[in-house]
């Protein structure tokens, strides 16, 4: 049984993520969806469970899925959620971006990005206006460098196994205007073996504009989710240093899955 956790703080963003998640796992009978909430005072526990159960009832009317509720006392939401996800050996956390304003998002106060940084399991980041249709095509972005030690194969495969999609592995690099190097071809062969169960297709795109190219790729190939692998130890630091990654997370029209070792 796979565990998918949806943190709920009773905000519109978290409700949207929960609705997206239940539609996403509907009909997948080996998945347990857990609605998770952290409360700061013991007096809030009863109301927390009341609201979670109310949400569960609403979601049960929108899709067929195994749903459970869990709330616990905690003062540090990212730590509490990370500990719970590891305890449950979760395969996936589904969250939105919780910054109240665009400025807060730019300065990375979002708990979502802190959870990505702690890396208890892959985190699917849902765009604010996203409404689930299907996940048939998934794009995995890779720089094709040392893939054996930088690609978190098992966590990614655990997510892919939920959807059984067509996998598109794409590299966007200005160096490919001329030709692919032998090193890139070797790394491609390793990736093909890693994900052979999903019969991946490979794309090497020579361009200087990563963000616009990925957006166009998403549109052209009808991509339903993009997987990104943060290379820095701190995903938050990486966002400060990389406008491409920041745009990918904050401006994507489809969910972005962040997974790293």
Write the layout of secondary structure elements.
Layout: E1 2-7, H1 12-25, E2 31-39, H2 45-60, E3 66-73, H3 77-87, E4 92-96, H4 102-106, H5 111-118, E5 123-126, E6 137-141, H6 147-150, H7 153-163, E7 166-172, H8 182-194, E8 201-205, H9 210-220, E9 225-228, H10 235-241, H11 243-251, E10 256-258
Parallel strand pairs: 1-2, 1-4, 2-3, 4-5, 6-7, 6-9, 7-8, 9-10
Antiparallel strand pairs: 5-10
Description:
- This protein is α/β, with parallel strands linked by helices.
- The chain folds into two domains: 2-126, 3-Layer(aba) Sandwich (Rossmann fold); 137-258, 3-Layer(aba) Sandwich (Rossmann fold).
- Helices cover 42% and strands 21% of the residues.
- The chain contains eleven helices and ten strands.
- The protein has helices at 12-25, 45-60, 77-87, 102-106, 111-118, 147-150, 153-163, 182-194, 210-220, 235-241, 243-251; strands spanning 2-7, 31-39, 66-73, 92-96, 123-126, 137-141, 166-172, 201-205, 225-228, 256-258.
- The chain has a ten-stranded mixed sheet with strand order 3-2-1-4-5-10-9-6-7-8, with helices on both faces.
- Helix 3 (77-87) packs across helix 5 (111-118) and helix 10 (235-241) packs across helix 11 (243-251).
- The longest helix is centred in the N-terminal third of the chain and has 16 residues, at 45-60.
- It starts with a strand and ends with a strand.
- 36% of the residues are buried.
- The model is unreliable at 103-109 and 233-243 (pLDDT under 50).
């Amino acid at each position: 049984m796979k565990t998918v956790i949806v943190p709920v703080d009773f905000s519109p963003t978290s409700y949207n993520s929960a609705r997206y998640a239940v539609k996403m796992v509907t009909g997948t009978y080996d998945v347990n969806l857990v609605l998770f909430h952290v409360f700061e005072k013991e007096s809030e526990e009863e109301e927390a469970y009341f609201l979670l159960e109310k949400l569960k009832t609403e979601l049960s009317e929108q899709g067929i899925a195994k749903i459970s509720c869990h709330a616990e006392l905690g003062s540090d939401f990212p730590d509490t959620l990370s500990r719970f996800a590891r305890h449950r050996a979760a395969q996936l956390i589904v969250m939105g971006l919780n910054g109240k304003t665009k400025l807060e998002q730019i300065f990375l106060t979002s708990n979502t990005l802190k959870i990505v940084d702690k890396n208890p399991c892959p985190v699917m980041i849902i765009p604010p206006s996203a409404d689930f249709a299907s996940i048939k095509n998934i794009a995995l972005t890779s720089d094709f460098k040392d893939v054996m030690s930088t690609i978190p194969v098992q966590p990614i495969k655990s997510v892919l196994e939920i959807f059984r999609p067509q996998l598109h592995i794409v590299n966007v690099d200005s160096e490919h205007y001329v030709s692919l190097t032998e090193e890139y071809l070797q790394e491609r062969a390793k990736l093909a073996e890693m994900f052979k169960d999903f019969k991946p297709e490979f794309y090497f795109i020579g361009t200087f504009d990563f963000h616009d190219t990925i957006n166009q790729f998403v549109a052209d190939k009808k991509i339903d989710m993009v997987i990104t692998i943060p290379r820095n130890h701190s995903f938050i630091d990486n966002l400060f240093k990389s406008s491409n990654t920041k745009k990918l997370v904050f401006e994507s029209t489809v969910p972005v899955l962040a997974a790293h070792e």
